[in-house]
Amino acid sequence: MKTSIEMGNAGIQNAAKLLLSGEVVAFPTETVYGLGANIGNPLAIQKIFTVKGRPSDNPLIVHIAEFSQLSLLTPRISPRVKLLAKLFWPGPLTLVVSKRKEISSLLSAGLQTVAVRMPSHPLARKLLYACNVPLAAPSANSFGKPSPTTASHVYEDLHGKIPLILDGGPCKFGIESTILDMTTSPPTLLRPGGVSLEQLEKHLGRVTLHPVVKDPKVKQVFAKAPGMKYRHYAPRANVNVLLTRKELETVAVAEGKNKTTHFLVLKKPLTGVVNQTVYTCASHLAHDLFAAFRRLDAKNTTQIIVQAPSESHVGRGVRNRLLKAATHINDKN
Ligand code: TXA
Ligand code: MG
Predict the structure, then answer these.
(1) Ligand 1: distance of its center to the CA of 115 in Å?
(2) pLDDT beyond 80 at 221
(3) Quick one: CA torsion of 199, 122, 141, 7, rounded to 10 degrees?
(4) Which residues does 284 contact at the CB level (< 8 Å), separation at least 6?
(5) Chain centroid to CA 205: how far?
(6) pLDDT digit string (tens) for 280-314?
């Protein structure tokens, strides 16, 4: 199958036609690129799993254009869900709610719940309006690879397997949406992302952190969704995460001249390091993180040493992705 990369309104119309005829199509969102399928077509949903090589016990997120579409997916909308939708949709927040029986259990991997979000990227919104049905869409990477944040990342992973990639340029946030389980009381944070825990707690009071969020090394026994057990976001290179600048400086002395090592650091460059990328803040690192993983793999970097941002606001999401990708974590402090 030939994979075309298309832009603009003509691209949206072609993408919508393909989706409504049961094909899967990649499209941009403000977080990462998604691989979409019509939720009403079980064969199309099955294609997502086949194309990505995704295990069937890992549920998908449903994307909607308008709040009114939420009631197609869930029988009850609580006041708290309504409030969060009002505050954060469209945007990078996924809410887990109870699932209508009619919604395919292939999509929810057999769970009684469904994860829903309303993306804010203008192309995603136009595409959802053009289709006039919700779209199931996981990140558009091959299983195990870092999520794609440009159309060419999607092409790298999926060309020949899907007919069309809608190109909307680089994604604004660069890491996946926050996932909040609204079926527990208090709600449970299942994945930190663009909408921060601090923002959520401001409006909800207490939010429970899932054990996997507290410590991404916690194994699958605690996983809420089966998908949480898989190692994600990992480049081929070893990823070493350092939690303090002091540790980073020590490692820079030992590893800084190593040509196949690359440092990703915050704010100030390290002295005596040949390969480094400096980010102004945690959001800047989030925006480039998965792209950097792919770039460095292409350069045959064998080791990536990353300065973890502090565990607050968007830093929590970045840290979570880093620890998931890490082969070694120095957590002595
Ligand atoms: O930003 C995003 O959320 C991107 C864009 C494309 O929207 N999508 C994304 O999808 O990251 P994916 O499939 O890579 O991650 C979805 C995660 C799964 O790993 C699964 O753990 C969780 O969402 N999930 C889906 N349905 C769930 C449910 N009913 N209960 C708990 N977790 C669920
Ligand atoms: Mg994914």
Answers:
(1) 7
(2) no
(3) -160
(4) none
(5) 25
(6) 999 999 999 999 999 999 999 999 999 999 999 99
**Which of 40, 320, 66, 75 lies closest to 190 in space, CA to CA?**
320
Task: Tell me how far apart the alpha carbons of residues 6 and 15 are, in angstroms, rounded to a whole number.
Answer: 9
Walk me through the domains of the chain, giving residue ranges and CATH numbers.
4-214 (3.90.870.10), 238-330 (3.40.50.11030)
Residues 135 and 127: their CA atoms lie apart, in Å, by 10
Ligand 1 contacts CB of residue 32 (under 6 A): yes
CA–centroid distance, 93 to ligand 1, in Å, is 11
pLDDT digits (tens, 9 = 90+) for 30-68: 999 999 999 999 999 999 999 999 999 999 999 999 999
**What phi, psi does 114 have (nearest 5°)?**
-140, 140
Q: State the sign of the Cα–Cα–Cα–Cα dihedral 285, 327, 303, 53.
A: negative
Give the CA dihedral 255, 261, 262, 266, nearest 10 degrees. Answer: -30
**Verdict on whether the full-model pTM lies above 0.85:** yes
Closest CA to 6 of 229, 315, 18, 37: 18
Q: Are 194 and 93 in contact (CB under 8 A)?
A: yes
Q: How confident is the model at residue 215 (pLDDT cuts 50, 70, 90)?
A: confident
- Counting ligand 1 atoms within 8 A of each CB, the residue from 127, 139, 171, 289 with the most, and so the one to mutate, is 139
What pLDDT is attached to residue 144? 84
Amino acid identity of 328?
H
Query: Whole-angstrom Cα distance, residue 124 to residue 74?
Result: 22
Positive or negative, the Cα torsion across 89, 176, 115, 94?
Answer: negative
Higher pLDDT: 329 or 316? It is: 316
Closest ligand, as measured to the CA of 179: 1
Q: Which ligand is nearest to the CA of 147?
A: 2
Cα end-to-end distance, the chain, whole Å: 51
